[in-house]
Description:
By secondary structure, the chain is mainly α. It has a single domain, classed as NCX, central ion-binding region (A middle domain of Talin 1). It is 81% helix and 2% strand. The chain is built from 15 helices and four strands. The strands form two sheets. Strands 1-4 form a two-stranded antiparallel ribbon.
Amino acid sequence: MPDYLSVIGFVAGLVLLVRGADLFTDAVVDTAKKFRLSTLLLGLLVAGAEPEELLASAIAAGKGMSGIAVGNALGTNIAVIGLALALGAAIMPVVADKPSQRHGLIVLVFSLPPVVFLLNGSVTRWEGVLLALLFLVYVWYVVQREKIEIQLEEVTTTQLLAGKAGGEEEEDEDDDDDTRPAWKVVGVVVLGMALMAAGGELLVGGAGSIMRWLHLSETVVGLTFVSIATSAEMIVLSIVPISKGYSEITIGGIIGSYAYNVMLTLGVAAAIRPLAVSMDLLSIDLPVMLGFYALLLIFTYQGRLTRTHGVVLLASYLVYLIYNFTLR
């Protein structure tokens, strides 16, 4: 396929993937509003949910492109911290409260099994199933803890992006959501999934062509082009809540995204087809991902991420990108 068609296919796939994820996420947000979940939990389960990454890695795995599948999962986690969170903190300091700090440690514990599987040099189909189940256990635990201990101001990412904080003026809108026919909600979910599936196919196909055109490895393409493209929406979901004074949405989204990718994205991809993990990923990218997460934990336990922290994270990510394109 000609080079320009590869780029067009990649971009078209990204547009369909993001639009499908928007529709799918809106339905989840409506459900979250009905159950009146806290802002932190909403960030963990909605802003942190990465259907784009999941579909991209799953399709890549089905095509036998383990490098793109694993590279996308790890690269996205690196990008959401080193790029999305970094940009947000560089614009305005991010306050990290106690619930965010606690959930950061919880995810650290839950992410140990996938790290162990990766260190073995491959992720088998059964290990993938275990990781997907582990993510469900993690969600159950977070829901239970949230319902018992955390009471934060109610707000949704949709309202934040619209510039609303979810006050009494939204009651009529909430009532409309409550009375919306179930078939409409199901229709939105199905449409979102269909768009994501078509977009993921185009995205992965375009990435493969770009890989051959630029003579890059699958791993580098997954770690850079695919991961940055599929995490683009997280950049918006990091900057907008911070600017409106809802830092917990950003921190929750980053933590949730990290958990989602190392457990569910990696798990589903491996369940479709066992994943081979290259030595480059083990010796370079896995330590980089863990290092970025360690920095996130250190900064949150200081109570806030300053502009300096954001610049440090962003500079580190740029160095990592330069290394990928020049030395690999």
